[in-house]
Design goal:
It is an enzyme of class 6 (ligase). The protein has about 900 residues and is of the alpha/beta class. The chain starts with a strand and ends in a 30-residue tail after the last helix.
Length: about 900
């Protein structure tokens, strides 16, 4: 078997709308292509021995053991690889379940799709599944050591990708509230919400966290002084910088027992408590300076009592946990080391933060504590005897947590909320030492020993004992108060032709609302009036750029076939999804071989519309109309034909639609009609001579109207948007050359040629086409372009793209010319492969009153060639041969790019 390609999908996709994380592997079965599992002796037995848990995979016929039954009866190896990849992830602790395998048009080559939790782990599982299956085919087994290594590697990848318990808690709460989130590329930040509504978090720091509050909390001595001045009970202490100051500091705090800790420490690093001698103090001083960046050390009076963490969010106490240091409890038989090993076998314990609890690690501090008691790891503790192994009670060093939220005394609660506001933290962890949290601190010599920014949530969410607390909920309520949005409107457009023009028009209409619009197109990514990135930016990466930008209020996203196929959508859902059309373009690429498959691919967008939103569908395209059966949202149709049966039935049932009727672009619903504007007054329609531009305008107007844009602003947008270089480069850009006109359009497939023909045939004079086709299209597609050209133009120059996309030079032009010859039409044609030479020849030969139509590879190059020839003063030339068309209706001149 050979892996040809592995793709990672991250949003609604061709394989699943609901499951956004899918690995797609293109797998060539090679020698196993025509050999089902039933014909591989020993394969079933070897597979069951390696992965007996596959018995839990239902598959068809839908019962336990169903998949293994299929293996016995005979199934193809691509199907087996899918299930093995899923099971390997399951055994490594990543819960997945979705998979699907389909053979491609290439015999023996399969698309294997399966769910993943972590991208790297998912890709690893794909490769490991192929290795495992190949090994069993060849040897009848998969070595246990290799399987164990695979599982360990998968666990390591999952742990490495883990966001940490606090961040995971916040993300789960955000998802439960339907708040979208994104990874940031810097400083492990997470963006919650989209566009202008976004908030950012880093662990439990938020973009509301005061930098002054965070800095003060990190300054342990400064915090203590602030609290002491406010009458808050804190430990007696002092700050030193050199060892020779230590004895004086001990005397100043009242002698032993003492605590020594670094000024800028965290997570209990470098802290030693209950110090009772000079030797212990010196050793503790060394540990504290080692853990401190500033080498500044705090000496405090040691207060006996239990360690509590009090969590305050947005000024309100949310949770209280008693933290117990890592310890061993004797049973009268086992050594301390044996007790530690038994504790670490608890499935709730893991390494670092990858589980509810952390495994106990024996280190220098642990040995020091044991030595002070006269113990070592071989000591057998008495039954019930507790031996602590850490000075501090941090969960990250093996401690446990007991929920005490309902026990805290009202005075202590009041004090904690006051402390959080005094330090200035929106999310605040307060460390309290007291023998009884249910009594006022002053009554039992309790103190607040530290105040922490970015406190961990794990002890509250998953306490070892007591009631779990949803501490992420108040954080979300603070960041996104009830009634405030977390999402910006997303309007997405797909189809074979017209996407860029419709996207730009829709963005322009939305600009009339005064909001900042972010939009993506085949020529660039834009925010407001400025371009962010040039290029074909119609995939998820560009869309995510828009959704992450804090200035964007509305996203209008051109969504092309390639991006959906390669990565899925960049959003979980949109408010409006427009499907303009589906035609035979890009077939044979990415295993999309039929127009029906292309329609399924493009329907991903329509199916991803929010149930409260609108799918805008072309009522004249049967493949688009069929999408309505799978759409969960509301539906609105557009059509150039007011008598269209689909549209009429929809409107009779109270549905929303846009239609071209009596020369008007109109919105209809039920029994009322709202006329927006006459087509002749909409510049994009070329005085009403370009039917496909009228259709694009209908789709854009309907999309805007369905999302609440007032009709006056839609009308204004239509009236001020032109098919110009500035607004739609390469889309029906018409240039007045004095005695003739030149038109630049990016038509490159049969449907766009036919649409363009609707305008060209209305031209009263000679028409000259400079045509070509992308080299990655099928031979028959190129031949068809030639036939269509012969029906549209009176003269034709066949050129070729500089990038032949794998074809020999002249091959694409050959098939186009063949199509022209087969048409038996009146068109005369010649071949000039170089695009620049072809354009210049057409412009040189253009007779008076003619139209030169250029379908370029490079829009910029074509426009520059035309700009050099434009007359300084542009005479008014009528387009229809009888009367002038007002300049407000048709673009006669263009600015340079």
């Amino acid at each position: 078997m050979k892996i040809l390609k592995i793709q990672t999908l991250r949003g609604p996709n061709y394989w699943s709308i609901r499951r956004h994380k899918v690995i797609v592997m293109r797998l060539d079965l090679e020698d196993l292509a025509e050999k089902p599992t039933s014909l591989n002796p020993g394969f079933y037995q070897g597979l069951v021995e390696a992965l007996p848990s596959l018995v839990d995979h239902y598959c068809s016929p839908g019962c336990r053991g169903g998949f293994l039954s299929r293996v016995q009866e005979g199934t193809y190896m691509g199907h087996v690889v899918e299930h093995v990849a899923l099971e390997l992830q399951e055994l490594a602790g990543m819960i997945v379940g979705f998979g699907r395998t389909r053979e491609t048009t290439t015999p023996g080559t399969y698309q294997v799709a399966f769910e993943y939790i972590d991208e790297q782990a998912g890709r690893y599982a794909a490769r490991a599944a192929v290795r495992l299956c190949r090994s069993i085919v060849d040897t009848g087994r998969y070595p246990v050591s290799e399987l164990e290594q695979d599982l360990q590697d998968l666990k390591d990848l999952a742990a490495k990708a883990s966001l940490g318990p606090s961040t995971e808690t916040l993300i789960k709460e955000a998802e439960s509230r339907d708040i979208p989130w994104f990874h940031s590329s810097a400083r492990a930040m997470i963006q919650l919400g989209s566009g202008i509504h976004q908030k950012r978090v880093q662990a439990t720091l938020t973009d509301r966290s005061s930098i002054l509050g965070v800095e003060l909390a990190c300054d342990k001595e400064g915090t203590k002084k602030t609290l002491r001045d406010a009458g808050i009970p804190v430990p007696r202490g002092t700050l030193i910088h050199y060892l020779d100051e230590l004895q004086e500091a001990i005397d100043e705090v009242g002698g032993y027992p003492i605590v020594i800790k670094p000024l800028d420490g965290n997570h209990g690093r470098g802290i030693t408590i209950d110090i009772n001698s000079w030797e212990e103090a010196k050793e503790a001083y060394d540990a504290a300076t080692t853990a401190s960046k500033t080498r500044s050390v705090i000496i405090e009076r040691y207060y006996k009592g239990r360690d509590h963490r009090v969590l305050v969010v947005n000024g309100k106490l949310i949770a209280v946990a008693e933290r117990v240091p890592a310890h061993a409890i004797g049973n009268g038989r086992s050594t301390i080391q044996e007790l530690i090993d038994e504790t670490n076998r608890d499935p709730n314990r893991g390494d670092g933060h990858d589980n509810v609890l952390t495994r106990i690690q024996v280190d220098r501090i642990s040995m020091q504590i044991l030595e002070r008691k006269g113990y070592d790891l071989d000591t057998v503790l008495k039954d019930g005897e507790i031996c602590y192994l850490r000075y501090t009670a941090n969960l990250s060093t093996g401690g446990i947590a007991i929920d005490r939220t309902d026990e805290i005394h009202p005075e202590n609660l009041w004090m904690a909320e006051r402390v959080a506001k005094m330090i200035g933290l929106d999310i605040c962890g307060i460390d309290v030492v007291t023998s009884d949290i249910s009594q006022p601190l002053r009554d039992n010599d309790g103190v607040i020993v530290e105040v922490n920014a970015a406190p961990g949530f794990r002890m509250h969410v998953c306490p070892s004992q007591g009631l779990p607390r949803n501490v992420a909920a108040p954080v979300m309520e603070m960041l996104f108060p009830s009634g405030t949005p977390s999402r910006i409107p997303i309007l997405a457009i797909t189809g074979t032709n017209g996407k860029t023009t419709t996207t730009r028009l829709l963005a322009h209409i939305y600009k009339q609302t005064g909001k900042t619009i972010g939009y993506t197109t085949t020529d660039g990514t834009y925010i407001g009036d400025f371009i962010v990135e040039k290029g074909d930016n119609t995939g998820p990466q560009s869309a995510e750029l828009i959704l992450k930008d804090p200035t964007v209020e509305v996203a209008v996203l051109e969504t092309a076939r390639g991006g959906i196929l390669r990565s899925g959508l960049a959003f979980d859902r949109c408010d409006v999804g427009v499907v303009l059309n589906v035609s035979a373009d890009h077939l044979g690429i990415g295993d999309i071989d039929t127009i029906e498959q292309m329609a399924t691919l493009k329907s991903v967008l329509a199916e991803s519309v929010d149930p409260k939103g609108y799918a805008i569908l072309n009522a004249e395209d049967p493949l688009v109309v069929k999408m309505a059966k799978r759409v969960k949202s509301q539906i609105a149709y557009f059509s150039m034909d007011p008598e269209n049966e689909v549209l009429q039935n929809h409107v009779r049932n109270g549905g929303l639609a846009a239609v071209y009727e009596n020369g008007y672009l109109s919105i209809i619903k039920g029994d009322w009609t709202l006329r927006i504007e006459q087509a002749v007054n909409v510049p994009l329609t070329m005085a009403g001579l370009a039917p496909f531009m009228i259709a694009n305008a209908l789709a854009a107007a309907l999309a805007a109207y369905s999302n609440g844009v007032p009709i006056e602003q839609i009308r204004s947008g239509l009236a001020t948007f032109e098919a110009s270089v500035a607004q739609t480069p390469g889309r029906m850009n018409l240039f007045n050359m004095g005695s003739y006109h030149a038109l630049v359009d990016y038509a490159h497939n049969a449907a766009s040629y036919e649409a363009l023909g609707g305008f060209v045939r209305n031209w009263p004079g000679e028409t000259i086409g400079v045509i070509g086709g992308p080299g990655d299209r099928r031979d028959e597609d190129l031949t068809n372009l030639g036939k269509l050209s012969a029906e549209i133009f009176k003269q034709i120059i066949v050129k070729e793209d500089n990038d032949t996309r794998g074809r020999p030079r002249g091959n694409a032009a050959h098939f186009i010319s063949e199509g022209i010859a087969q048409a038996n039409g009146p068109a005369a044609y010649q071949t000039i492969l170089n695009e620049t030479e072809a354009i210049e020849t057409a412009l040189d030969q253009a007779p008076s009153g003619s139209l030169v139509v250029i379908l370029p590879e490079s829009v910029t190059r074509a426009i520059n060639l035309i700009e050099k020839r434009k007359p300084l003063e542009e005479p008014r030339i009528p387009l229809n041969g009888s009367k002038p068309v007002e300049s407000s209706s048709v673009e006669y001149s263009e600015s340079s790019t």
